[in-house]
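Convert to structure. Protein one:
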Amino acid sequence: MSSPLDRSSPTTSARVNSGFERMVSEKIDVRLARFERLGINMFGVANCFVSLGNLSKRFDFAERSITSVEAMFCDAFNFTDDLLEIHDLRLHEELGKHGLVVGAPFLRFFAAHPIYDYTGHLIGSVMLVDYEPRTLGDDERQIFSDIAAMIERELAFDALYLNQLEVIKQNRSLKRDSLIDPLLGTWNKTAIIRSLKIEMERCSKAEKPLALLIASLDQMENLRVSEGIAVTDMMLVKTVSRVRSCVRPFDAMGRFGTDLLLVVLPGASHLVVTAVAERIRSSVMMHPEVVNHKETSLTISAGTACTDLFPDAEPEALISLAEKALLSARNAGNNCVVQARPAQPDMII
């Protein structure tokens, strides 16, 4: 179902500004690479890695580049919740026998600082590797901690942004649900009137006509008495399907009353809306429905009104004119379409 409500709803127009959107649209690897370059320059080490458990996936190990080898060495470490600093890997009881320590590329120094998510769970490490033994001074340890904190804030920002998008999505869904008739899947009365007002203003600015029609099944009262509400609702759902097949995708349709459907046709003249209403009437009449294993013929009556005949009419007045036209159609014996005309402002009620 397409309607101007989709374009005008404040929830659907919620957008972040272009700079913010550009910042968060960057891949996480690109953003973390900035911290890695910062670590290399701040500590003067061979390499710095931010690992969230998938470091190896960032590199093509088929090429066996020095960076991929260093990343593979870092992936061998489990995340720890304390600062880990190995001054000389050759002197380490276990790592001193590691192939990348005793052999090429002869790694000598390793340090890792934990990274936590915004809930306090350990999710990764920022790691330093070098080819000379070294010891981090107190200032360097503080900087190391600061870089880890900045990474945590970057990840927390990313998570909060995703949560915000999810909230916006849920709000949009709730907003839309509040405007939809749960049985028919059309706009409800509030939404279809709002759609009419929006389209009337838009058509007025564009100097185009707008038409609306109000229709109802002639047999609804009898069906409700003889067959009950469930069958009546089913017939109404099927009627909506017939009506929808006869109008354009961008025409708005809503449930205006218990048994009334209101269709807004932007850009349609009084001739067009009459043709559409007749098409709807013929479609319903030519497709009888089966009720309790018995074929039942259905008919529909409609009243129409258009701004090319009533150029000064406000939305409420145009609806009132269409309602009077519908009453005239019913008084004329049902199964017909009546158009509101200036020469017959009161019509037959």
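Protein two, convert as well:
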Amino acid sequence: MRLNERHLMQLAAVLDAGGVSEGAAMLGLTQPAVSRSLSMLEARVGEPLFVKGRRPLQATPLAAQLAAQGRVIIAASRQASDAVQGFVKGSKGLVRLGGVPFFMDAIISRMIGEFQGREPEIIVQQSYMNLPEVVAALEGDQIDLGIVAMGEVSSGPGFEFTEILHGRNVVACRQAHPLLRKRPIEARDMTTYPWVAPLPGSPLMSDLQMILMSIGMSDLNIRYSGGSLMSVVNFLTETDALAVLPFSVVFALRDSSRITVLPYQIPQPNRALGIMRKAGGARNPASDRLANHVTLAFDSLRHAIKRHEGAVVWGHS
């Protein structure tokens, strides 16, 4: 036997409100419409719904069971309405985010934490990806946003790219590195120390090759590779190794007093960090809200990074 869900909802409302008129008002319906629905439900089940002669209305055992199911339907309907309103406003939902590892760990993850402090009902799923993986994931509708470094090459007509920070790299080392006591630092000085290789697929790998060319070297003494940001920081802290890192990443770790900038100018890539989205199609209001939060956060962060950069006394080769 199939019962009309609306009839069960109306039965629950009538019993909870204590009368047909009151239940109808609760649901925004008229009293005659609700009375007809209850009569139809009673005819459908072939049993009375109310104990005769009782005021306020008293449910029969069968009606009490049906009303319990009606309450479940009412609750689900209200939750669905809340979900729709939350989605449209961008205050509820799921945001799938992919981004370059070091930036995600050092900067973006903290911004996500700040964001969820304000928007606790938005769920963020983060994945580590470089540009090719982000493009493929956006095309396959596997992520909503990508945080990537983009160079001179356009992202293509199928994507939108919003710049949030211009790229700048530095050579990073531990706070007490011997080279920090030398002035000026020369190119050959850096070749006497071990280096950390960037993650495979990272644009920092090509940046390291540019540094090699600028100092007239074909190879470096790579002693560590493939680590996460925390692994690289730990390795630098315990050794005299050097690593190429984005300046913003070193800036984000400044309070830890573990690594710092080696004051030596290196070739800079023509690259910017930004938010990539698929152009056109349905938009996720929650992802738009997160993207706006990250953009505004970088508006403030950009000036702080610039001031910190001005405190570095750059050496010359």
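The chain has a mean pLDDT of 87. The longest strand covers residues 159-166.
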